[in-house]
Design goal:
- By secondary structure, this protein is an alpha/beta fold.
- 17% of the residues lie in helices and 28% in strands.
- The strands form 7 sheets. A 7-stranded mixed β-sheet has the order 5-4-1-6-11-8-12, sandwiched between helices.
- Strand 4, helix 2 and strand 5 form a beta-alpha-beta unit.
- The longest helix has 11 residues.
Length: 424
C-alpha cells in the first residue's frame, strides 16, 4: 500500500468575484501575477520547496486554463508515478452529482483520493494567496505539540481583523477560542486558511459534518474540532502574505514586486517559484523606448515609455505611448501615442491608437463601487478598445467595444462598458 506522510489539498475552485472582469472567464488562481506567473504557482511552488510531492488541486469555476497550466505538473517536479499533482474537479457519482458547495465539502467529496495515500497528515491550502512558506516547519510544529489541527495564523491590524477567522491562544500557542469574522475581534491573530490536520481527525470531522450545507473549514470544521476537545494550535507566521482577492490588493502586490528592495522577492535562489512558461523569443526594446523600474516579460516589444509597470510576455507597446503604474497581462497590444495610467489590462486585449486611460478625477463606479475603486482602470480579457477614446478612473470595460459606445469619445470616471460575447 502507498504511504505518504503528508499530502496537500489545494482549493482552487474560487471565482474570485471581487476581481470583477478579470475573473469573468478564468478562475482566480489562474489569474496572471508578476509578469510571468499565475497565482496558483505560489502555493504549488511552496509544496515542492517544502518536500511535498502529492498535491490534489480542487477545481470548479472556469477550470480550463488552470488545468492547461498545471498539466501533469512538470514545472513543479510533480509529474510522478505515485503522488504528483492531480486535478480534482467535481464529478458524477452514481447516487447524485453535486458541485462543491463549501471548502470542506470539496475536501469531503475527495475522501477516496486522500485514502489512496494513507497519509498521517493532510495540508489544506488556498490557491489564491501570494506568499512563501515552508510547510515542513509547520508540520514539525504540529508534531511537537501533538496537535490534532494546526492553523497558520498571522498578526493583522486590529481594524482589519473582522475580515478574517480570528484565533485566541494561550501562552503555549494552543487555541482557546476561534471566531469566524467577528464583529468585535478580541485578538489580531488571523487564520491564513492554511491548516494541517492529523488524518483521522480530519476524516472524522468531514464524515460527521457531511450533511452540513455549504460545509466550510472556518465556519464548521474548526468549531467542530474545538467543541470536541481536539488539540488546536496556532502556528504564527510573520513573513510576506497577501490575499490578492480585490483589484486594489492585486494591483498593490504586483507593484510591490518592482520596489528597489521588494518585500516579496521573486529572485531568491533557494526558494524558487516555478511556472509553466511558454517557449517564446526574448524581449525587444527599441532605441526610442524608455523603461524605468519595471518587470518586462519575454517576447514583449516596447517602442514607447514604461514606468513602474509589470508587463507580461508577448505585450506590444507602440511608439509614443506612455504606460505608468500599470499591470499589462499576456499578449496585449497597445497602439501608438496612448497614455495609460494606473490600469490593469487582462490577457489578449487590443488597444487602438491615441487612447488615454485614467483621465479626470475619481467618481464611484456605477456598477460595483465596492470592486472598481482606487482610481484603477480595469479591462477584461479579449476586449477591444477603439482608437481615439478617453477612459476615466474607477472604470471597467469588457468585450469588443466600438467608438460609438463611448459618449463623445469618452467613458467618464465611474463608468462601465460590459458587452456580451467576445472575439473568439
Amino acid at each position: 500500500m502507498i504511504k505518504k506522510e503528508m499530502i496537500a489539498m489545494l482549493l482552487a475552485g474560487g471565482q474570485g468575484s471581487r476581481l470583477g472582469v478579470l475573473t469573468a472567464k478564468v478562475a482566480k488562481p489562474a489569474v496572471a501575477f508578476g509578469g510571468k506567473y499565475r497565482i496558483i504557482d505560489f502555493p504549488l511552488s511552496n509544496c515542492i520547496n517544502s518536500g511535498i510531492d502529492t498535491v490534489g488541486v480542487l477545481t470548479q469555476y472556469q477550470p480550463l486554463r488552470l488545468n492547461t497550466h498545471i498539466g501533469i505538473g512538470i514545472p513543479w517536479d510533480l509529474d510522478r508515478n505515485i503522488g504528483g499533482v492531480s486535478i480534482l474537479p467535481p464529478y458524477e457519482k452514481s447516487s447524485n452529482s453535486e458541485w462543491y458547495t463549501g471548502t470542506a465539502n470539496a475536501i469531503y467529496q475527495n475522501l477516496d483520493y486522500m485514502e489512496t495515500f494513507n497519509p498521517d497528515y493532510v495540508l489544506i491550502l488556498s490557491g489564491d494567496h501570494i506568499y512563501k512558506m515552508d510547510y515542513e516547519v509547520m508540520l514539525d510544529f504540529h508534531k511537537e505539540n501533538h496537535a490534532d489541527v494546526t492553523i497558520a495564523a498571522m498578526p493583522v491590524p486590529l481594524e482589519e481583523a473582522s475580515r478574517f477567522g480570528i484565533v485566541i491562544t494561550d501562552d503555549d500557542n494552543r487555541i482557546t477560542e476561534f471566531e469566524e469574522k467577528p464583529e468585535h475581534p478580541r485578538s489580531n491573530l488571523a487564520s491564513m486558511g492554511i491548516y494541517i490536520f492529523s488524518w483521522p481527525v480530519l476524516k472524522d470531522a468531514l464524515l460527521k459534518l457531511s450533511d452540513q450545507p455549504g460545509c466550510d473549514f472556518g465556519k464548521h470544521i474548526i468549531p467542530y474540532c474545538h467543541q470536541n476537545d481536539k488539540r488546536l494550535f496556532a502556528y504564527e507566521y510573520n513573513g510576506y502574505w497577501k490575499d490578492v482577492g480585490t483589484l486594489s490588493s492585486y494591483w498593490e502586490a504586483n507593484m510591490e514586486l518592482i520596489d528597489i528592495i521588494p518585500e516579496f522577492n521573486l529572485y531568491e535562489e533557494f526558494w524558487k517559484i516555478y511556472t509553466n512558461s511558454d517557449i517564446i523569443p526574448p524581449q525587444y526594446i527599441s532605441d526610442q523606448s524608455v523603461i524605468e523600474r519595471s518587470i518586462i516579460g519575454d517576447g514583449a516589444e516596447i517602442y514607447g515609455e514604461v514606468r513602474n509597470c509589470v508587463i507580461s510576455s508577448g505585450v506590444t507597446i507602440g511608439k509614443g505611448t506612455v504606460v505608468r503604474d500599470s499591470i499589462i497581462m499576456k499578449d496585449v497590444t497597445i497602439g501608438e501615442h496612448c497614455v495609460v495610467d494606473k490600469a490593469i489590462i487582462a490577457e489578449n486585449v487590443t488597444v487602438g491608437d491615441n487612447v488615454t486611460m485614467g483621465i479626470g478625477s475619481e467618481a464611484p463606479n456605477c456598477l460595483r463601487p465596492d470592486i472598481y475603486n482606487s482610481g484603477l482602470v480595469t479591462i477584461g480579457e479579449n476586449s477591444v478598445i477603439p482608437s481615439g477614446v478617453q477612459i476615466g478612473k474607477n472604470t471597467a470595460i469588457s468585450g469588443v467595444t466600438m467608438k460609438e459606445d463611448y459618449e463623445n469619445g469618452v467613458l467618464e470616471s465611474g463608468g462601465a462598458l460590459v458587452k456580451a460575447g467576445d472575439r473568439s
